Amino acid sequence: MLFWNHIYSQFDPVAFKIAAFAVHWYGIMYMLALLGALYTAKWYVKRENVGFSNQILESYFIWIEIGIVLGARIGYILFYDPHVDYYLSNPWQMFNPFMDGTFVGIRGMSYHGAIVGFFLGTWLFNLKYKINVWKLLDVVAISVPVGYIFGRIGNFLNQELIGRPTEVVWGIYVEGVLRHPSQLYEAVLEGLVVFIVLYLYRNYKKYDGELIALYGFLYSVGRFIAEFYREPDFQIGFVYGEWMTKGQALSLLMAFAGLLLYFFILKQGKKG
Question: Which segments cross the bilayer (predicted)?
Fold first, then answer.
């Protein structure tokens, strides 16, 4: 386990450089996350004969990706960044990839902000194309967890969102401190486990929309558990006592919203 424990000291987050631009492993994994989600959606639609064309799926993924990036960045500024007043006064700086003339990329994304952007993008897409939006969202529920696996591995390779100090033998040294590889816990809990549960449940759903509602609940439960092993955001710390993080608080709200949506869909389906 010695090599694994010290993997960060032997691994470069930069995959390669093109002139002055550094291409990080995180960026590569982010692209794999998008492609993984898209091709899982195509595979699922074809396998289950859902009825959406590849053109619709590809167009939809472009719309929601724009919404996700905008929502994730703005959400991070509003929920986590201590310089929110500066960014609100200079909103163009939210997406400035340069710092002191050096290209550093855009850092700081909020998952819960991404959810808001995702639903906004979905709403606008539905206004334009007039589709069965609940059926499409169920496709998203199956495909997004696959992409999330790659995304969390990207966090791990980028040496960010580090875990809390630990003594477990599979811990990773970060600046001399042995920590949980919490990003990988999240890849499993929020990605792999959610995908397996939803994929198995698909044969039991009665109404369109059940899967996306359950996704919201299952993701939130996985995130809530994983946060016990993840170091709280340094600029925020704990928001309730000495145990609840901002991510856990937002996950509780999202889990509650997912359950409400699930029972609402069941109730409306029975009425129909």
Answer: 18-39, 60-79, 109-126, 133-151, 183-200, 212-229, 249-266
* Residue 217: partners with Cβ closer than 8 Å, 6 or more residues away: 254, 255, 258, 259, 262
CB atoms < 10 A from the CB of 152, how many? Answer: 25
Residue-by-residue DSSP string for 203-218: GG--STTHHHHHHHHH
- Enter the tokens of residue 193: 């486990």
3-state secondary structure of 137: helix
Q: Tokens for 8, please give them.
A: 């960060």
152 annotated to bind ligand: yes
User: Where do the H-state alpha helices sit in the chain?
Assistant: 2-5, 25-48, 54-79, 84-89, 111-129, 133-157, 182-186, 193-201, 210-226, 246-271
Global confidence as pTM: 0.85
pLDDT at 72: 86
CA distance 264 to 205: 14
Residue with tokens 């959810």: 115
Q: What is the pLDDT of residue 60?
A: 93
Residues in CB range of 162: below 8 A, 6 or more apart: 174, 179, 182, 183, 230, 231
For 2, 188, 224, 232, the CA distances from 170, given in Å and listed in that order, are: 9, 15, 21, 20
What residues does 109 pair with on adjacent strands? none
Angle at which helices 133-157 and 210-226 pack, to 10 degrees?
20
**Helix or strand holding residue 172 (H, E):** strand 172-174
pLDDT along the chain (272 residues), means of 10: 90 84 85 93 93 91 90 84 80 73 66 86 92 93 95 91 95 95 97 97 94 96 95 76 84 94 89 62
pLDDT of residue 24: 82
